[in-house]
Design a protein that fits this description.
seven-stranded mixed β-sheet, alpha/beta, single chain, 884 residues, 38 strands, 31% helix
Length: 884
């Protein structure tokens, strides 16, 4: 290893590192204002100057690599004099009041350290103040032209919002395309605020509420990317959130929801006392009365109608420990496998398809494989809006030269960076993916050695795909045959290649088969079990992977272990028999409710009425229940219309536990706040109901850590994941023992189910939800950047200023033909019902296709969505509804 001398002391250093990186690795530091570990070295501010023997003048430590034999001095009198001179120049026109008002800013700390506070004699310029953005205050009177905001927006987020205008002492930093930040292309990720050393960019919440006095490391409560963050509190109130710099998933970056949409925890309509409704009137009650009432009613109904008359739904917003106890209560206390979660309506097809073909129903690789991939195929996912941190990483990979193929009915943002965008008709994934597979075979872009060694069914699939020419698929899908060939070449000829998919694949009548078709592509090309390759689902909610993995699924126990395979182990640890009668999934429970067979439902952190398809059918299912218990933060639509009991739960900012992200990573959740009002953690509420029903054995935990220890005993693949190990970083399962590092890449030498995986030949069965003269449009539903799912959390934050309502997006050609314009209020009608919402004319849509979000109860988009379901796992077909 190279050896250097720093301020007279010898050190061994890593070749290629900069002087600044090496000094910091030894516990030292050098003043700097333009450096950020997330950015490429810049050398702009020159505050980090050091002297190196043999160099005629000082060099900047942040962008000068170390070399063997270097002798470095970091703080000679000459260097300190230069730093003082540079700081004095920066302070010359700098606002004095800013130094006093924000003492902890890096620039202000440096001025204070060098005794230069008095050098700041400038005044704030109102012309440089921009307060239009709900989260970010811009005051370029405090800008020191370090370019960190420009660079982090370009290099990390890839939004290119900020630009440097003019030259020399006339240089100014301002949005590239608009007069204000609010009107620019800013996605409100806050990275520019996070890196700004002077306060020119600052969080509005901090200015209004003061700096945080306590920071707690936890995991984001929104999507399944699993970003780690620091929650800042002051006087028991959240005032700011910052990204965790050492987080392997987000690497010091957050999106607008994770960074700013936290005020839901303090919302005025937060329900913090238990309530029981009688004769249509809600009445606040004590926890003792609420628990006793729920326990007595569940006991009565199960006794009168049998255990199958009761169902319970876990929550993708709850922790692993919460969900584990939920399914344990269902099976041990209620005596039923009628337990499910919202994975049913999103990624159940992924779990089923990948488990059937590969042996494990989860991501084959990791988010880090985005940077390792030479080609990325994004199918039925819109990562820059719905999984923004992953979206930014894919965008940066494309900017660095990775081939990018996008398959989506809309021209999403990533399509602008793609080598080819296949803008197919909704519901035609199977023909398109079959045709891509056919091209791979025809053009020899398959991995014959991999097929021979690790794959079955290759000759049969080759024969089957003879019928799926690009021309045949093109006619069905509405895309060009040559574009299909180009997409196949980009994916098949550029190795390694990674597949990323989302609900645009799974929420279809052939959702499970759509995922199987993607797995076919990966197996044909050998893009499994190698760095930079694989099939990775982007999970929708923060713990939807964990809720199903914990056993909130009727056919599987914790660890997604089939019931009969793991029955003996669970009965031994639980000291109780498991039910022998099969359970019902969520959609089957809804069917049973409509038939009068389901009598009681306990929905935890899940607004089924607002989010399930065909709202009229959901109402019909639940309005006849004898007991409906809702456990949530707010009186959601299910509770408002039909619930008998409301149990107030804590938010994730108020409890401990773990979440599991889309790449199988288990990460810690830590309480930054005390429970608000009389709310309680989900696990504690569930445990108290179990005890009130007379089952104390197995329901006497004192903490989530104790619950996790029981999970480890039952799930061999997580046996090595301990809370102690999770203190420093998350771990990816399988992790079978405490010396195991976790598994970032599955299927390297074998598949979970054996040495070989079987290819599937999948014929196309068009959905029954087709256009007619009466219903000429196909409606696709999905999320948006600024709102999240049913809006339970985000609609109670300033995100409503950035996206106040759902919209119906329509192509310009269709809008012109109908005589409609932006903002016009329109009625959308399907075979099930209708709703009204404002129109947004969007060139991203092709003619005949509409898109709408479902975030608000005012819109209630699921009044119109289709009852069609996936034939294998009953996932609803949210992505294809015929409307007028």
């Amino acid at each position: 290893m190279p050896r250097v001398t720093i301020d007279g002391a010898p050190y061994e250093v890593l070749a290629g590192a900069t002087i600044l990186e090496q000094i910091r690795s030894f516990g030292g530091d050098i003043p700097t204002l333009c450096d950020d570990q997330r950015l490429a070295p810049f050398g702009g501010c020159r505050i980090c100057l050091v002297e190196v023997d043999g160099r005629s003048r000082p060099v900047t430590a942040c962008d000068t690599p170390v070399a063997d034999g270097m002798s470095i001095r970091t703080s000679t009198d000459a260097l300190e004099a230069q730093r003082v001179a540079l700081l004095r120049l920066l302070a010359r026109d700098y606002p004095r009041d800013a130094v006093e008002r924000q003492p902890e800013k890096p620039l202000h700390r440096l001025l204070r350290a060098y005794g230069l506070e008095e050098s700041a004699r400038g005044d704030s310029d109102p012309a440089l103040l921009d307060t239009t953005h709900p989260y970010i205050r811009v005051d370029m009177s405090q800008c020191i032209d370090c370019y960190r905001c420009v660079r982090i927006c370009d290099e990390v987020q890839g939004q290119f919002v900020w630009a440097a205008w003019d030259r020399g002492d006339r240089t100014r930093i301002a949005p590239r395309t608009a007069a204000t930040l609010r009107d620019s292309e800013c996605t409100s990720c806050g990275a520019c605020v996070d890196t700004c050393p002077s306060g020119a960019l600052e969080d509005v919440s901090v200015l209004e509420r003061g700096e945080a006095t306590l920071w707690t490391k936890t995991t984001c409560p929104y999507c399944g990317v699993g970003c780690e963050m620091l929650a800042g509190t002051r006087d028991q109130r959240l005032v700011a959130v910052r990204p965790a710099m050492d987080a392997p998933v987000n690497r010091g970056h957050l999106c607008v929801k994770g960074r700013y949409a936290f005020d839901f925890a303090h919302a005025a309509d937060r329900v913090t006392r238990p309530m029981i409704r009688k004769d249509g009137v809600w009445r606040e009650v004590s926890w003792e009365e609420a628990i006793s009432f729920v326990a007595a009613e569940l006991r009565r109904i199960a006794s009168a109608h049998g255990a199958r008359s009761v169902g319970i739904l876990g929550s993708a917003r709850a922790t692993n420990e919460d969900n584990y106890l939920i399914q344990k209560l269902a099976r041990v206390v209620l005596g039923t496998h009628n337990v499910d979660c919202c994975a049913r309506v999103c990624h159940a097809p992924t779990a089923a398809a990948m488990k059937a073909m590969l042996g494990t129903g989860a991501a084959t690789s990791s988010f880090d494989d985005i940077e390792r991939a030479s080609a990325i195929l994004v199918c039925g996912a819109n990562p820059t809006e719905n999984h923004p941190i992953v979206g930014a990483r894919i965008k940066q990979a494309a900017l660095r030269g990775a081939r990018l193929v996008v398959i989506d009915p809309r021209r999403i943002e990533l399509a602008e960076y793609a080598d080819v965008h296949l803008q197919l008709r909704p519901g035609t994934n199977i023909p398109l993916l079959n045709a891509i597979a056919r091209v791979l075979i025809d053009e020899g872009a398959i991995d014959q050695a991999f097929l021979a060694e690790r794959v079955e069914g290759w000759p049969e699939l080759r024969t089957f795909l003879c019928y799926w020419s690009p021309e045949r698929a093109a006619e069905i899908c509405g895309v060009g045959a040559d574009d299909i060939r180009r997409a196949a070449r980009f994916y098949g000829e550029t190795r390694p290649a990674l597949i990323v998919h989302g609900l645009g694949v799974t929420e279809h009548a052939q959702g499970t088969e759509g995922v199987e078709a993607l797995v076919n592509l990966a197996l044909l090309t050998g893009n499994v079990g190698k760095p930079g390759s694989g099939v990775n689902p982007l999970r929708g909610q923060n713990n939807v992977q964990g809720s199903a993995q914990m056993g909130c699924e009727p056919a599987h126990l914790t660890g997604y272990q089939p019931i009969e395979q793991a029955r003996a182990r669970f009965e031994s640890v639980w000291g109780a028999p498991l039910p022998t009668e099969p359970g019902s999934n969520l959609m089957q429970m809804m069917d049973a409710g409509a038939r009068g067979e389901l009598k009681a439902l306990w929905a935890i952190g899940y607004d089924i009425l607002l989010t399930n398809p065909d709202a009229a059918a959901t109402r019909a299912s639940i309005e006849g229940l004898e007991l409906l218990v809702v456990q949530d933060l707010f009186l959601n639509e299910t509770a408002r219309e039909h619930a008998d009991v409301f149990l107030p739960a804590c938010s994730s900012f108020e409890k401990d536990g773990t979440f599991m992200n889309a790449e199988r990573r288990v990460q810690r959740v830590r309480a930054a706040l005390e429970p608000i009002g009389d709310s309680r953690p989900d696990w504690r509420i569930v445990q108290e109901v179990a005890r009130a029903m007379g089952v104390e054995s197995g329901f006497s935990f004192t903490s989530p850590a104790e619950i996790w220890e029981e999970i480890r005993r039952l799930w061999p693949a997580a046996a090595g994941i301990t809370y102690a190990r999770l203190e420093t970083a998350g771990l990816q399962w399988p992790c079978p023992d405490e010396n195991h590092p976790g598994t970032s890449l599955l299927h390297q030498t074998t598949f979970t189910g054996g040495r070989r995986a079987a290819l599937q030949h999948i014929d196309y069965r068009p959905t029954t939800e087709t256009v007619t003269e009466e219903y000429p449009f196909l409606l696709v539903t999905g999320r948006s950047l600024y709102q999240f799912n049913a809006g339970t959390m985000t609609m109670r934050t300033p995100n409503v200023k950035l996206r106040p309502t759902d919209t119906l997006d329509m192509s310009p050609a269709d809008a012109e033909r109908l005589g409609l314009g932006d903002g016009d209020r329109v009625r959308v009608r399907s075979r099930r019902g209708s709703t009204q919402l404002p129109l947004h004319v969007d060139p991203a849509l092709r003619e005949g296709t509409l898109f709408a979000t479902f975030h608000t109860a005012e819109t209630f988009l699921n009044e119109v969505t289709s009852p069609v379901r996936d034939a294998v796992v009953d996932t609803p077909e949210y992505k294809v509804t015929a409307v007028t």
